[in-house]
């Protein structure tokens, strides 16, 4: 590849800026459509959208009845993606998700196997209550999320693109759940905490969802356009200060890297995937908020959803009642100086 001349670089930069401005308009339209049916919960909508715009998967954690499922089906409509939903249960088998081989017999009596694709062959998969399924079934889904194909009877079947999993999980104190192992949690770009709505939003929910006609969201994008925006996000330049902030934040969350508080409180910290997630999501957040370049503020605002499922506390910290969120908040305060 030849070296770019300065005029080519300027042209290239202009093209990226023009594409980003086009994307800003698309994202504003997405926000408007989602806002018609999901009230309040701005940070939940934003973080879930950031995961999708960054090309990744999100884990939504919250008690039942907070419109997690509704958010996912709304995003399917708005983003023009075909979607399917799997309700995870303790007796769910990997083949219920991936699909299976069935035997066919033609009129001559010749038998052959045919692959019948499971519900994972979709663009937006809602994995409801993922922590209710057995580890074996969870790992079948998580392998597909990582490799973008499904292997059945030794043959790989590619998943459609784009492919996103939005999984929901109830807080782990509930009975009959299998917590996701750390290596599998790491597959999720973001963990999105879904809290109860505030008073204004809850009032609006009561008024607008108990009548005869409910508002409906319309389509704002096509799947192809979504992929163009995902590619654009990967092309957005990240400044040196933002890059340094990402490295400093991720490394400060690991024990043995010179942070005395972390050494005391954190048993193991985030790996390189956390930095990759921050690089992608900071760019997506800038676009989502109408800006053309990510800032250090974007990185710090994403610290919790990116890091909280990628680190574990020491026994001593847990005994003191310290939570992962407390540790991250303290690292963010240090980073702000």
UniProtKB/TrEMBL annotation:
InterPro entries: ATPase_AAA-3 (IPR011703), CbbQ/NirQ/NorQ/GpvN (IPR050764), ChlI/MoxR_AAA_lid (IPR041628), P-loop_NTPase (IPR027417). Keywords: ATP-binding, Hydrolase, Nucleotide-binding. Pfam families: AAA_3 (PF07726), AAA_lid_2 (PF17863). GO terms for molecular function: ATP binding; ATP hydrolysis activity. Residues 262-329 form the ChlI/MoxR AAA lid domain. SUPFAM superfamilies: P-loop containing nucleoside triphosphate hydrolases. The keyword Hydrolase applies. Its EC number is 3.6.3.-. Residues 57-190 form the ATPase AAA-3 domain. Belongs to the MoxR family. PANTHER family: MAGNESIUM-CHELATASE SUBUNIT CHLD (PTHR42759:SF1), MOXR FAMILY PROTEIN (PTHR42759). This is MoxR-like ATPase. It comes from Mycoplana azooxidifex.
């Amino acid at each position: 590849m030849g070296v770019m001349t300065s005029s080519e670089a300027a042209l290239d930069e202009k093209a990226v800026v023009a594409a980003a401005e086009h994307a800003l308009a698309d994202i504003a339209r997405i926000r408007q459509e989602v806002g018609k049916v999901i009230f309040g919960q701005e940070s939940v909508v934003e973080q879930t959208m950031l995961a999708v715009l960054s090309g990744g998967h999100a884990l939504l954690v919250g008690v039942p009845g907070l419109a997690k499922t509704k958010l996912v089906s709304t995003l399917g409509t708005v983003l023009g993606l075909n979607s399917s939903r799997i309700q995870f249960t303790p007796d769910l088998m990997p083949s219920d998700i991936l699909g299976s081989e069935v035997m066919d017999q033609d009129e001559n009596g010749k038998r052959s196997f045919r692959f019948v694709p499971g519900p994972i062959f979709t663009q937006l998969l809602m994995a409801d209550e993922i922590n209710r399924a057995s580890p074996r079934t969870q790992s079948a889904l998580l392998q597909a999320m990582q490799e973008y194909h499904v292997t059945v009877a030794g043959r790989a079947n590619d998943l459609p693109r784009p492919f996103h999993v939005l999984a929901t999980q109830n807080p782990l104190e509930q009975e009959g759940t299998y917590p996701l192992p750390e290596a599998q949690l790491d597959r999720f770009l973001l963990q999105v905490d879904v809290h109860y709505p505030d008073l204004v939003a809850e009032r609006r929910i009561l008024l607008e969802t108990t009548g005869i006609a409910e508002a409906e969201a319309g389509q704002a994008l096509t799947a192809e356009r979504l992929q163009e925006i995902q590619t654009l996000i990967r092309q957005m330049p990240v400044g040196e200060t933002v890059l340094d902030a990402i490295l400093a934040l991720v490394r400060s969350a690991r024990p043995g890297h010179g942070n005395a508080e972390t050494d005391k409180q954190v048993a193991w910290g985030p790996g390189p995937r956390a930095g990759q997630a921050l690089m992608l999501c900071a760019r997506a957040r800038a676009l989502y908020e109408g800006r053309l370049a990510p800032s250090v503020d974007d990185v710090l605002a994403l610290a919790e959803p990116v890091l909280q499922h990628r680190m574990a506390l020491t026994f001593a910290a847990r005994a003191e009642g310290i939570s992962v969120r407390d540790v991250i908040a303290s690292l963010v305060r240090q980073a702000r100086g």
